[in-house]
Design brief:
single chain; alpha/beta; 29 helices
């Protein structure tokens, strides 16, 4: 960078051009030779990891594809796989389940053959808990309508074999269950039976309450004093170990089984009775303590490379353990087990263990040396564990402060899964422990409560504010709601946003009726509209806040438990019991209450659709670390470099746009480009250090006369400026054109022709014939839609001595490069923005 500090004349700029030209010619030969015609289409542009991590999206997807190919190849002619002796068709069911989880559907030839084979086996023919349970899960996942009778027959078989003996085995399952007086339940068979019944209930097969209660009691009895679970109850077990010494695989089974049983029986902290909806109720939940004891044991003994509790160096039941570990993380909404990121660490172990040139995982004796079984367990872990995170609930203060309605986001996520036809998860994040990297794992950060979320400790508060600021700058979205009856949360959250966003952006404004949040997914009936506030930050409304409705006090001035005004969204989501969430009526709720619950789900889906644009990443597609904060002088020498010109007018939005562009140019095209992109004011001495500047904004702005003079001098010395209006903002465009007449009064802003070198790829980059533009439109049903249109590029510019010194796009480019685009942001799609900005960058470097 020292070489450019004296570049204040055209001759010096020519020297700089020579240096940059050599760089570009060295690295752009491929770009010249491979110059491509662009028929723009939108897709994710994820920069390749430079950290050398083994866990990348590409590596994980390749491992999944390899495992799928391996299982396809090992399928026999009748649709089966090599069966484990005595458990036919259990292996075939397991392999089919893994392939379905990996994304194959019922119409895939491999799956279709397997289903035909499995349909030949009745539960009586199988007569084993393992194969009947696995077959049930396959039928529920593949084609539940077609196989409804088979599912019901399997469920009846499992219910009949649930142990009825009046001893410690009551409520569990054994291998067969025909002769219960002489059989003993074990935690492995019992786990598979619970999983099968759970999947059956999800597709509409009714399971009686006493079945779940009996199973829950069984798992509670089997928990050891240290919080773990072993294999089974025995008179030989040591004192304090009801089911034998704990192992990771069986502790995962116990945690997941309790989570399922208690979740199905769910004692929610909100309920609907007639027209009344009761919120923030005190409910005794002893199961949570048992689950936490299990999680504590698992966190203390966590291993990603082996099954905890087994002898050191033993590989016994390793793959089976990972299969259970994924379920624990998903069902308990935990990204971490103890201090460990269970999916990332487990996936890295699996990728290393498999090796780069193998498609399968080698099984040990515990799995009968059957590589199809080990590969199926590994595939289940990799596929299900990477499901996208929809939302994370922020843990702050004490339990009752941040988690008044513990099932609210679980219910909403289930609804979104169903309506979007996606497999999604949610999780919790501890504000005290979370880093920015942790926050960036989730597209939506949700918090609610009745007390202020601001930490009392000054150091914790400063860290919390800095993390939230960085999270929003990197494209995050905050959804907050004050629960009924208290103003403390609202006042605390408003102050928090002022400190996070500053006085300019931190005030929460009432969202107008034309905001896309009301119709992003479905139109909200007018009678259910409620006040919602927001703060624009970046390329969209990045903070959404829902205030509480005030309860009417009784004669003694006390707040009642039943509110006359509208309950919170969190309360309504919590009050939606299982049958309501699947479309059936809750027995005790009136039609009025059900309609209000339904409206809350519509509004929640709209908020989440607006926040994510339905573009959700799998876990392995999200970088595990925040990009290194580069400083001037620490970046690549002899490389492309640019700055961002500050103008006011909301130009602090899209802070990652140009760094993202430079990162993509470096990673995708192999061109050395500096990731440090400074923000430069017109009166900064550094203005003339940067022959190429980018500028964007979304509001009106005005330069001072001295700033105009500096910019006039910048252009006269050969500088280049690329400007775009964020979200096609007319206010910004009008201000820019007015300022241009003041800075360059004799300049003419003209259309850039289609055959201009900017579009032909003459200086490297891409041959652009058409770009893809996005535009929001509300259809006749009141639903907001993003319309994509292919059209020739639209650029205007100013020339001096035959060279463009300024290019202007009235359509958004920067927000597309941010890869955080809301439904009301018109402009280019991400890929098209990358093509256009890359060509502009190369033109600027080569043309002066």
């Amino acid at each position: 960078m020292n070489a450019v500090k004296s570049c204040l004349s055209l001759s010096d700029l020519f020297c700089l051009k020579t240096r940059l030209s050599a760089t570009i010619l060295s690295y752009f030969l491929c770009a010249f030779l491979c110059c491509m015609s662009v028929q723009a289409q939108d897709s994710s542009l994820e920069a390749t990891s430079e950290s050398g991590e083994i866990l990348t999206a590409e590596a994980t997807q390749e491992a999944i594809k390899g495992a799928v190919d391996f299982l396809r190849d090992k399928q026999r002619s009748h649709g089966e796989w090599d069966e484990y002796p005595g458990y036919k068709p259990g292996t075939t069911s397991l392999c089919t389940l893994a392939l379905l989880t990996a994304g194959l559907d019922k119409d895939d030839p491999t799956i279709a053959k397997a289903l035909d084979y499995l349909r030949e086996f009745s539960p009586a023919q199988q007569n084993q808990t393992y194969p009947v349970s696995l077959q049930t899960m396959v039928f529920c996942l593949a084609d539940p309508e077609k196989d409804r009778q088979r599912i019901e027959a399997n469920v009846a078989w499992l219910l009949e074999r649930q142990m009825k003996t009046q001893n410690e085995h009551h409520g569990g399952w054994s291998y067969v269950g025909d002769h219960q007086a002489s059989e003993r339940s074990d935690n492995s068979n019992s786990q598979f039976a619970i999983l099968a019944l759970y999947e059956a209930e999800l597709v509409g097969v009714h399971i009686e309450e006493e079945v779940w209660q009996s199973a829950e009691d069984y798992w509670l009895r089997m928990q050891n004093d240290d919080g773990s679970w072993g294999y089974r109850s025995s008179s030989l077990n040591p004192a304090g170990f009801a089911s034998g010494y704990g192992t990771g695989s069986m502790t995962c089974a116990g945690i997941a089984a309790l989570a399922i049983c208690s979740g199905v029986r769910e004692a929610a902290r909100a309920s609907a009775e007639g027209d009344n909806i009761r919120c923030c109720q005190d409910v005794d939940d002893p199961i949570a303590a048992h689950i936490n004891r299990g999680l504590n044991w698992l966190g203390k003994h966590f291993k990603a490379h082996a099954n905890p509790g087994r002898a050191e160096g033993s590989e016994s039941y390793f793959f089976y353990y990972l299969y259970g570990l994924e379920r624990v993380g998903r069902l308990t909404a935990n990204r971490f087990v103890g201090q460990s990121d269970w999916y990332r660490e487990g996936a890295e172990v699996l990728l290393r263990r498999k090796g780069a040139f193998s498609q399968f995982w080698v099984a040990q004796k515990d799995l009968g040396n059957n590589n199809c079984v080990s590969t199926s367990f590994a595939l289940l872990f990799l596929s299900k564990g990477r499901w996208p995170i929809l939302v994370s609930k922020l843990k702050y203060g004490q339990d009752q402060q941040w988690n008044q309605h513990p099932n609210d986001l679980a219910h909403l996520t289930q609804r979104v899964e169903k309506d979007w036809n996606l497999k999604l998860v949610w999780q919790t994040i501890d504000a005290k422990k979370a880093t920015v990297s942790d926050l960036l794992q989730t597209p939506i950060l949700a918090l609610n409560g009745q007390v202020s979320p601001l930490p009392d400790n000054e150091a914790e508060r400063a860290r919390f504010i800095a993390n939230l600021r960085e999270y929003l700058e990197q494209g995050g979205f905050i959804f907050a709601e004050a629960l009924d009856g208290d103003l403390s949360f609202e006042s605390g959250f408003r102050e928090l946003m002022r400190q996070v966003l500053g006085s300019e952006n931190g005030e929460l404004d009432l969202l107008g009726p034309d905001h896309p949040i009301w119709s992003a997914e479905k139109p909200l009936p007018a009678q259910y509209l409620r006040p919602i506030y927001g703060a624009d930050f970046g390329c969209r409304t990045s903070v959404v806040f829902v205030p509480s409705y005030r309860p009417k006090p009784d004669a003694q001035g006390r707040a009642p438990s039943v509110f006359d005004d509208r309950p919170s969204l969190s309360c309504l989501w919590e009050a939606a019991q299982k049958r309501t969430r699947t479309g059936e009526h809750e027995e005790h709720a009136s039609e009025k209450a059900l309609a209000e619950i339904e409206a809350a789900f519509i509004l929640g889906e709209n908020i989440f659709a607006y926040a994510t644009n339905r573009q959700l990443k799998f876990k392995d597609q999200i970088s595990s670390d925040v990009a290194e904060e580069l400083t001037k002088g620490s970046d690549v020498h002899n490389s492309l470099f640019v700055g961002v010109l500050e103008c006011g007018g909301g130009n602090t939005c899209a802070p990652r746009a140009i760094p993202n562009l430079m990162k993509l140019v470096r990673s995708r095209l192999g061109v050395p480009a500096q990731l440090f992109v400074p923000r430069i004011k017109p009166d900064d001495d550094a203005l003339f250090d940067y022959p190429t500047l980018f500028m964007h904004g979304r509001n009106q702005f005005q330069f001072s006369e001295s700033e105009r003079e500096r910019l006039r001098d910048y252009f006269q010395r050969g500088g280049f400026l690329f400007v775009n209006a964020v979200c096609a903002s007319k206010e910004f465009s009008d201000s820019f054109i007015e300022e241009l007449t003041q800075i360059l009064p004799d300049a003419e802003l003209e259309d850039v022709p289609a055959d201009d070198p900017v579009f032909t790829g003459r200086y490297g980059g891409f041959k652009i014939e058409k770009l893809q533009y996005r535009h929001r439109k509300v259809n006749a049903q009141g639903i907001g839609q993003t319309i994509l249109t292919d059209a020739p590029p639209r650029l205007k510019g100013v020339k001096s001595q035959g060279r463009w010194i300024l290019l202007f796009s009235p359509d958004d480019v920067s927000c597309a490069l941010e890869n955080v685009v809301s439904g009301n942001c018109d402009g280019l799609t991400q890929r098209s923005a990358f093509y256009l900005a890359t060509n502009v960058l190369f033109y600027a470097a080569e043309s002066f």
